[in-house]
Amino acid sequence: MENRGDHSHLQQRKKRRLVLFPQPLQGHINPMLQLASILYHKAGFSITIIHTNFNSPNSSSYPHFSFRSIPDGLSETEASTADLIAFSVLLNVKCVVPFQDCLAELLGGGGDDDDVACLITDANWYFTQAVADSLKLPRIVLCPTSICFFNTVAAPPMQEFYFNVHTDFQFETPVLEIQTRDPENINRFIKNIVKQTKASSGIIWNSFQELEELALTNLKQEFPIPHFLIGPFHKYFPASSSSLLAQDQTSISWLDKQPPKSVIYVSFGSLIGVNETEFQEIAWGLANSKLPFLWVVRPGLVQGTEWLEPLPKNFLEMIDGRGHIVKWAPQQEVLDHSSVGAFWTHCGWNSTLESICEGVPMICGQPCFGDQLVNARYVSDVWRFGLHLEKKLERGEIERAIRRVIREAEGQKMRERIMILKDKMDICLTRGGSSYQSLESLTNYIMSF
Ligand code: UDX
Predict the structure, then answer these.
(1) What is the pLDDT of residue 392?
(2) How far apart are CA 424 and CA 242, in angstroms?
(3) Checking CA distances to 408, which of 78, 127, 202, 280 falls within 20 to 30 Å?
(4) Residue 241 lies in a domain
(5) Membrane-crossing residues (predicted)?
(6) Is 202 in the pocket of ligand 1 (CB under 6 A)?
(7) For range 119-142, the mean pLDDT
């Protein structure tokens, strides 16, 4: 936007500061810091990031932002729990006072001398609406999930989450997995998010209109506040630097040696774990497919193990260089690589969007939870550029799924469908495109506060 040469507007915005507060999880930190960069570089605002001690972002990668750390009070056990809902609820209690103090200090001119225009927080930080209200500061919410998911849980009755899609064909299937997992706790958590998001001044989505128009139309009836679809965030700048783990660059040198569109890239994001049996079925499925694979095995992916100990005996010798295993990959570069033919993903929203942006068809695999289940259904049944592995992980199913997507005509069709969407995405970021315009509206909206 500054390309227009409107320096006086830019100077004006430089005097307006935005305070951003990411939830301290990789899949939430990435979109928030990408958004911060967009609002700084493209819209010209000054940026302060408030963050917890736990999983604090690497401030040296963002020398132009101001960082404020708050104590989250989490014990070691609390910080390492696998129960993400309990973790998020606890943070919403423990951070109230330190966050309020930090924000009040900023508003009182403590340190950064620009005028604070608004607060932007992750939707999961529902407690921040009351803090913003008490300080008379507008709060805008960043929703790091798909609109399709939010629509599924927020628009229909809260007790029963139904997958409710209105497309050229209609179906309503209960998303069983969401219904059965500790429903009371999840219900309370989602109700809080929905209530405090409704009370906010607007929602920013890491999505683009051409992808989620129908879900947005439906959601707007329940949420008559401004919606800004300015994504995909990561396409504004080269590969993001907000990774909490070191990204193994041998992923790229290994991919360089593989034939075009031949490799299955496998990663289940930053949170999910598998048991030992599942891990071995994945390993055998990959080996038996006889196709090259790049597999991200995060330390701790299999609970109670260090790294690769649960691999079948002699596995690495057996695959003889046909596979490459890393702890963490530069995922956006990997998906952009010409050798990658498909992405086996847990369907976290960042991963799903990153795959769409590079036109890579997907295998949507277990294990999944929360929004990932809804995203997986959309990828396989609505947008139809992926296969959904719905049954329990089994080597034969895995092998067949990989071959169907990479080798068979069915996979070719998926690639064609996803490429159409990728082309639309490329246009949405250019001048006059839907995300470009939405960013302009967001900028003007913030300037009106
Ligand atoms: C979580 C939730 O699980 C997800 O469903 C929600 O939508 C956002 O927060 P996570 O499970 O980590 O995130 O998955 P995902 O949303 O896909 O985010 C993972 C991020 O880590 C992506 O941006 C991806 O590029 C990055 N990543 C992943 C790497 O940089 N290297 C890797 O090896 C794997």
Answers:
(1) 87
(2) 27
(3) 280
(4) no
(5) none
(6) no
(7) 98
Tell me the residue type at 441.
S
pLDDT tens, position by position, 63-101: 999 999 999 999 999 988 888 899 999 999 999 999 999
Nearest to 27 by CA among 441, 353, 394: 353
Q: Is 288 near ligand 1, meaning CB less than 6 Å away?
A: no
Measured distance CA(172)–CA(423) in Å, rounded = 30
Looking at residue 311, the DSSP 8-state letter turns out to be: S
Report the atom number in ligand 1 closest to the C-alpha of 326. 33
Question: In DSSP terms, which residues pair with 19 in a beta bridge?
Answer: 48, 119
- Decide if 239 is inside a domain: no
Residue among 181, 270, 334, 369 to mutate when testing ligand 1 (max atoms within 8 A of CB): 270
Q: How far apart are CA 191 and CA 252, in angstroms?
A: 43
Q: Is 269 in the same domain as 224?
A: no
Let me know if residue 244 belongs to a domain: no
Cα 36 to averaged position of ligand 1 atoms, centre (Å): 18
Distance 26 CA to ligand 1 centre (A): 6
Closest CA to 314 of 341, 284, 294, 337: 284
- Do 96 and 194 share a domain, yes or no? yes
State the CATH number of the domain containing residue 69. 3.40.50.2000
CA of 291 from ligand 1 middle (Å) equals 25
